[in-house]
Design goal:
With 275 residues, the protein is of the alpha/beta class. 37% of the residues lie in helices and 17% in strands. The chain is built from nine helices and six strands, in the order E-H-H-H-H-H-E-E-E-H-H-E-E-H-H. Strand 5 and strand 6 form a beta hairpin. Helix 1 crosses helix 2 and helix 3 runs parallel beside helix 5. The C terminus is likely disordered.
C-alpha cells in the first residue's frame, strides 16, 4: 500500500498524479521539499498570487454581509479594484439566493476521502445547485481543456455525491448541477459546465480507478510531457532541467501547471471539513 489510511484526496493532488506520477509521489507520499521556483519571475508570480488572495477574501467578506462600497473604499490595487467592480456588477447575477461561500465538503472515494473546497455554492430549494469559482488569471483556457481538469471533474462529482448535506438531506441530482468559472480579469466572462447522470457515472469510474492506480502501482514514473517540467519545483531533482519556465508561458498554458487560485487549500485543516 502506498497511501496512508487517512489520506484525503483533492483536485490538486489528483491533478498532480495525472500530470506526473513522480510529482505526486514526491509531494504527497514522500513530502519532499525542493527549493526551486515554479516560474522565472517569482516576484511577479507572488504578486499575482497575493492579488488573487485579496480578491477571494473581498468576495468572501461581501458574501457574509459587508457592504460592497465599504470594501471597495479600502482598495488601492487597480487590478483588484477592477476585478471587484466586475464582481459587484455581475458576479452573482445567476446565483440562487441561498449561498455558501468557501464551503468545504468531503465524500468517500473507495477507502479514502475526496475533498472539494468551493469558492461559492448556491443551492435553490428545488435542488438547482451552482458552483462558482473565481479566477484571476490573465488568460481564459480552452473550454475542452478545462473540462478535462480535475477541478471540474471533482467539484461536480463531490457535490452530486454529498450535496444532500447542503440541501436539507435531499440529494442534488447531477442534472441540477452546473459549474461556472468566472474570470475577473475579463470583466466577469464565464465558462459554464452543466452536469448529468451519465457524466457522474463516468467520473465515479474514473476517480475510483485513479485511486486504485495510485494505491497499487509499484513505481511512479516521470511524465512523458516534458513541457510540464518547466513549471515543476522538482525538475532539477529529476534531471529535467534547472531553469524555470517563463511566467508568460505559465499563464498562457495554465492547464499545464498550478492554478494560483488553488494554492490556499491546506489539507491539514481538516477541522473545516463538512461531513
Amino acid at each position: 500500500m502506498n497511501l496512508p489510511d487517512d489520506f484525503v484526496f483533492s483536485q490538486s493532488s489528483l491533478q498532480d498524479y495525472v500530470d506526473c506520477p513522480r510529482r505526486f509521489q514526491l509531494k504527497y507520499l514522500q513530502r519532499q521539499r525542493w527549493p526551486a521556483p515554479e516560474v522565472d519571475d517569482m516576484l511577479e508570480f507572488e504578486r499575482r498570487m497575493e492579488q488573487g488572495e485579496i480578491f477571494h477574501h473581498l468576495v468572501h467578506q461581501h458574501l457574509v454581509g459587508i457592504p460592497a462600497d465599504v470594501l471597495a473604499g479600502r482598495l488601492t490595487d487597480p487590478d483588484v479594484q477592477r476585478w471587484f467592480a466586475a464582481y459587484v456588477k455581475n458576479g452573482l447575477s445567476d446565483a440562487p439566493a441561498k449561498r455558501r461561500p468557501e464551503s468545504t465538503l468531503t465524500v468517500p472515494l473507495g477507502d479514502y476521502l475526496l475533498l472539494a473546497k468551493f469558492d461559492l455554492l448556491a443551492v435553490e430549494p428545488d435542488g438547482r445547485a451552482l458552483i462558482l469559482d473565481w479566477k484571476t488569471g490573465q488568460h481564459i483556457p480552452r473550454a475542452d481543456n478545462l473540462l478535462r481538469r480535475l477541478q471540474t471533474i471533482v467539484y461536480r462529482y463531490v457535490l452530486a455525491t454529498g450535496g444532500n448535506h447542503l440541501n436539507g438531506g435531499k440529494p442534488i441530482p447531477p442534472e441540477r448541477i452546473e459549474m461556472i468559472y468566472w474570470y475577473a480579469d475579463h470583466d466577469g466572462a464565464t465558462l459554464r459546465f452543466p452536469y448529468d447522470s451519465a457524466q457522474f457515472a463516468a467520473d465515479n469510474a474514473y476517480l475510483t480507478q485513479l485511486v486504485e492506480d495510485i494505491n497499487t502501482r509499484p513505481e511512479f514514473p516521470l511524465t512523458d510531457d516534458e513541457r510540464r517540467c518547466r513549471f515543476c519545483v522538482y525538475r532539477s531533482l529529476n534531471n529535467r532541467g534547472t531553469e524555470a519556465g517563463s511566467l508568460t508561458d505559465w499563464d498562457e498554458n495554465a492547464e499545464l501547471s498550478l492554478d494560483i487560485d488553488d494554492l490556499n487549500l491546506d489539507l491539514q485543516q481538516i477541522a473545516e471539513i463538512e461531513f
